[in-house]
Amino acid sequence: MLHYLNLSSCQLGGSIPTSIGELRRLAVLDLSNNSLAGHLPITLGNLSQLITLRLMLNMISGYIPWQLGFLQNINDLEMDNNNLSGHIPSSFGNLTKLNMLSLSWNYISGHIPPVLSHIRGLQNLALHHNKLTGIIPSSFSNLTMLRGIYLNFNFLFGSIPGELGVLPHLLHLDISSNNLTGTIPSSIGNITSLSYLVLSSNKLTGSIPQEIGSLEQLAYLDVAHNVLMGVIPSNILNLTGLQTLMPEANSISGTILENVDQLFNLQVLNIHHN
């Protein structure tokens, strides 16, 4: 019985046949980087032994079948860079062994299902460049293994959940280019593993919290194009690993530039339109 099927980058066309569901012992299915079109067959849900499903970089359209929620052994589910639409199935909350979920660069709409917080081992969540609306679920605080959250370029609204501050392993947080409001929660300063923080192109108000100066691993900070006021906290100068600082297009003031030479790794500083 076939356990491993890798047909990536083979210039395949047409659609995925429904008979794929007969490969009941399949553990790895990689059809990425082809020209596959049509809809995802619901028979993919029959592949109960599947650990890896990689369908990115195709032209697959239509809804994501809820039957994929039967793939309870799956670790890696990547369907980015297609033409998928509809909602993220709530049945994905059953995929409790999932480490990677990538649905970016599609046309997926609706809310982010709070049941994704049941996937306690999830390490990377990539939902960027879609048409998602609603709020960022505060229950993401349960996903304590997360390394990366990428929700940028959607239509999310509401505030940034302060509960994200309890994620001890988070390296990358990009929630830019949404419609988020409210202030930057001071609890972000608790994510001491954070190296990449992008909050730009929202409608955030208030000031940059002083607690961000506690993020000693931070290399990239982008809060541009918001409605922020006040000053850049002086303890930002403690972030000696900072390479990019982008607070432009806000209403920020202050004299941090007098000591910016203390950031000896800084390569990009953009403060225009303040």
From TrEMBL:
UniProt keyword terms in alphabetical order: Disulfide bond, Kinase, Leucine-rich repeat, Phosphoprotein, Receptor, Repeat, Transferase, Ubl conjugation
Membrane topology recorded in Swiss-Prot or TrEMBL: Single-pass type I membrane protein
Gene Ontology cellular component annotations, sorted alphabetically: membrane
BP GO annotations: maintenance of meristem identity; regulation of root meristem growth
Residue span(s) of domain Disease resistance R13L4/SHOC-2-like LRR: 2-175
Presence of keyword Secreted: no
GO-annotated molecular function: kinase activity
Pfam families: LRR_1, LRR_14
Subcellular location: Membrane
Principal location: membrane
Name by which UniProt lists this protein: Putative leucine-rich repeat receptor-like protein kinase
Organism: Dichanthelium oligosanthes
